[in-house]
Design a protein that fits this description.
The longest helix has 23 residues. The chain has 3 helices and 8 strands; from the N terminus they run E-E-H-H-E-E-E-E-E-E-H. With 178 residues, it is an alpha+beta fold.
Length: 178
C-alpha cells in the first residue's frame, strides 16, 4: 500500500492518491514538498479465522490421538507442540508493526526513512530513479546519486512499484525544475 501526500496545488504533483486502503494521515513538516509513504500490506487475522483455526487444530489433535492407541505416545505430544508453535508464530507476527518506508522530497533534498530507523539523505538535483528488472516479476526500484545508491519499495508489490515509478520521476523532474 502506498500513499502520496502533497500539501497544495502549487507544490509538486498537486494531488493525493492511494491504492487499496488509505494510509493514516501523515504529519508533513512545513517545508516538505512531497511525501510518499509506503507500507507492507498485511491481511488481518479476524475472530472468525481464529475460530476456524481452532477447529482445525482440534481436528488435527483428534487424528493424532489414534496413533497413541497403538502405543506411539510421542505423536500426540509432537502434534501439540507443533500446533502451539504455529499459534505462537501467528500471534507474534500479528503484534509486530508492518514494515514501512517514507520518501520525502524537500527543498533541494531527498530523504528516505524506513521503519528500522535507517535514513538516507541526498541532494535531489543529482538523484536518478533506476528500475532494475531481474525477471518480469522481480522489479526493484533504486535511487542513485553521485556516490550513493539504495533500493526502496520493498514493502510494495510489483503493481505498486510500477505505479509509483512515474510519480517519483515526475516529482524528481519537478524538483530539478525540468
Amino acid at each position: 500500500m502506498y500513499h502520496i501526500v502533497d500539501r497544495s496545488d502549487e507544490r509538486i504533483g498537486g494531488h493525493s492518491c492511494s491504492t487499496q486502503e488509505a494510509a493514516p494521515a501523515l504529519n508533513a513538516d512545513e517545508d516538505t514538498d512531497f511525501v510518499l509513504q509506503m507500507q507492507q500490506n498485511r491481511s488481518s487475522f479476524p475472530q472468525e479465522a481464529r475460530g476456524t483455526f481452532a477447529v482445525l487444530v482440534t481436528l488435527l489433535m483428534a487424528t493424532s490421538i489414534l496413533p497413541a492407541f497403538k502405543g506411539h505416545m510421542l505423536v500426540p505430544l509432537f502434534s501439540l507442540g507443533v500446533m502451539a508453535l504455529l499459534v505462537w508464530a501467528l500471534e507474534s507476527h500479528q503484534k509486530t508493526a508492518p514494515y514501512s518506508e517514507r520518501l520525502e522530497l524537500t527543498d533541494g533534498e531527498l530523504r528516505y526513512v524506513d521503519s528500522a530507523g535507517r535514513t538516507f539523505a541526498m541532494p535531489s538535483y543529482w538523484v536518478r530513479l533506476e528500475t532494475v528488472k531481474r525477471t518480469p516479476v522481480d522489479v526493484r526500484l533504486a535511487l542513485r546519486s553521485r556516490d550513493r545508491r539504495f533500493e526502496f519499495g520493498s514493502s510494495l508489490n510489483l503493481e505498486e512499484r510500477l505505479a509509483i515509478r512515474p510519480v517519483i520521476e515526475h516529482a524528481l523532474a519537478t524538483a530539478k525544475g525540468l
